[in-house]
């Protein structure tokens, strides 16, 4: 019997044994790969169609995002209202999103309604018509959102730092202006849709309490479509990096503004590089969580900001290291000075055991939380598959978190946390 007078042994998160729940792979007749995680106790599921139809592939700015958004806004058989009503009738939610390389349709629903919803999802992929009036509404709304966003210093800073780091013509760095939305033509959208959705590369992910006939239903509705495997890249599309020559910029967006958006960024190798996983640990320690050095110094000690974080930008082709915060206008320069001071400390002094253990525990604890549920598990698998990474990468990342040394982190800091490598932007 459990003796409740004796406190249980405290176990550090870093000592937990973590495994990635399994993922089943199926292949439809047309070569489309389907990855499934069948777990969970609720009668729900998620199906996620990923197309290689991000802005990486567009010839005209803003076309990829417009095409993705307007997928739900009409087919030859249904209006936008009919489509939305159909999914709402079954208590389902169909969302769409567009990223740099990929775009997605994601269905959340009760598993008993899957067979009524899949035919309409297939209809959107094969028969979207992009009505002119829907495109006009999209343009108007996009321009209004842009006009509002441009008044915010954090929005302006966010898109400019990407342009500095990767180049304004690169998919990771380009941004849209009002005239770009005006220039969108329905013919461009239809051509993009035909190339990258109807006949595009696709991979499907499904998770939750899956119906027994799910693969048969996916085969029925998607297995005979002229889609291609996501691994079948007929033409390799490349975009050269064109980073800005000027490293420091100071922009007044609102002369009366009292807040400054600060972005400091540098190139960093992508996840296929041997430094990437150790870099994640160094980044977490530096500014990756609430107990990080940047937060402790600039928020807790100096009081310059409500929050400050650093990130490794996880793009598929290129990566970067970004420090981001909003601070008072009068302390913006002092904030930047303290960011560089923390870089210097990491370069010159090895981190002590207590701080390194706290960082390890935070990272392992975050991974434990990320594996809580089928949707989170399929998200982990999706990240591996879309980045063409084996399952061993996940286990190696745990090994790196547990074993990276203070000396290795100091060497990384000396290699990558050099102020002259960083772009520095202040927008007020």
From TrEMBL:
Signal peptide: none annotated. Transmembrane segments: none annotated. It holds the Pfam family Peptidase_M16_C. InterPro entries: Metalloenz_LuxS/M16 (IPR011249), MPP/UQCRC_Complex (IPR050361), Peptidase_M16_C (IPR007863). One of its GO terms (molecular function) is metal ion binding. Residues 184-361 form the Peptidase M16 C-terminal domain. This is Insulinase family protein.
């Amino acid at each position: 019997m459990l003796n409740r007078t004796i406190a249980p042994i405290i176990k550090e998160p870093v000592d937990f044994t973590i495994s990635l729940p399994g993922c089943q792979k199926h292949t439809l007749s047309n070569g489309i790969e389907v990855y499934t995680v069948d777990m969970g106790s609720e009668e729900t599921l998620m199906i996620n169609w990923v197309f290689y139809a991000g802005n990486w592939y567009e010839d005209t700015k803003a076309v990829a995002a417009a095409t993705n958004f307007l997928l739900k806004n009409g087919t030859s058989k249904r209006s936008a209202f009919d489509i939305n009503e159909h999914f709402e009738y079954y208590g389902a939610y169909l969302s769409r999103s567009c990223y740099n390389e990929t775009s997605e349709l994601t269905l959340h629903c009760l598993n008993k309604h899957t067979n009524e919803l899949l035919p309409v999802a297939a209809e959107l992929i094969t028969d979207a018509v992009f009505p002119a009036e829907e495109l006009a509404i999209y343009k108007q709304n996009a321009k209004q959102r842009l006009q509002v966003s441009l008044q915010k210093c954090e929005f302006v800073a966010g898109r400019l730092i990407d342009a500095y780091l990767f180049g304004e013509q690169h998919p990771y760095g380009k941004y849209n202006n009002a005239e770009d939305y005006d220039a969108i033509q329905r013919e461009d959208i239809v051509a993009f849709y035909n190339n990258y959705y109807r006949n595009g590369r696709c991979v499907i992910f499904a998770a939750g309490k899956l119906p027994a006939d799910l693969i048969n239903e996916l085969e029925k509705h998607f297995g005979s479509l002229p889609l291609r495997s996501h691994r079948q890249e007929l033409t390799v599309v490349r975009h050269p990096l064109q980073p800005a020559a000027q490293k420091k910029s100071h922009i007044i967006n609102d002369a009366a503004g009292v807040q400054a958006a600060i972005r400091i960024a540098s190139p960093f190798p992508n996840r296929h590089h041997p430094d990437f996983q150790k870099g994640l640990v160094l980044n977490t320690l530096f500014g990756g969580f609430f107990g990080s050095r940047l937060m402790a110094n600039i928020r807790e000690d100096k009081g310059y900001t409500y929050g400050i974080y650093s990130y490794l930008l996880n793009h598929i082709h290129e990566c970067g290291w970004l420090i981001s915060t909003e601070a008072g206008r009068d302390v913006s320069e002092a904030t930047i000075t303290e960011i560089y001071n923390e870089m210097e400390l990491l370069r010159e002094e090895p981190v002590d055991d207590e701080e390194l253990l706290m960082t390890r525990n935070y990272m392992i604890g975050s991974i434990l939380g990320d594996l809580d549920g089928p949707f989170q598990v399929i998200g982990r698998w999706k990240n591996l598959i879309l980045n063409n990474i084996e399952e061993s990468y996940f286990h190696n990342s745990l090994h790196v978190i547990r074993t990276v040394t203070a000396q290795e982190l100091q060497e990384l800091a000396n290699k990558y946390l050099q102020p002259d490598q960083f772009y520095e932007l202040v927008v007020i």
